[in-house]
Amino acid sequence: MTKPMVPVNRHIMVEKQAEEKDSFSSAFADELRTLNQYLVVKVVKASPDCEKVKDLKEGDKVVIPANMIVEFDIDGVSYSMVQENYILAISK
Asked: Given CB 3.0 to 4.6 Å as the disulfide criterion, which of 18, 62, 68, 69 pairs with 86?
C-alpha cells in the first residue's frame, strides 16, 4: 500500500491537464500552450511552508514554465511537483 505523498520545501504537487478548452483558456493561455514553453496544471496539494501562494487550493489551475516541473515515480505511482516561485498565474 502506497502512503500519501506530501510536498515539502515550498513545492506544490500538480497534475498535468489534458488539452481542453476551459474557463482559463483565454487568448493568453492558448498562446502559452502553443509555444510549449508553459503548462496549465491543476494543483493537487501544496507544501505547508509555501509563502507566496498561501491561498492556493486543491483544484486551482496554475501556469508554470514547462521545464520547471519535476516528475518521478514511487511504487508505480507518478508524481509531478513544481516549486512555488515558478507559478506565473493562478485561476481559482
From this structure: 68
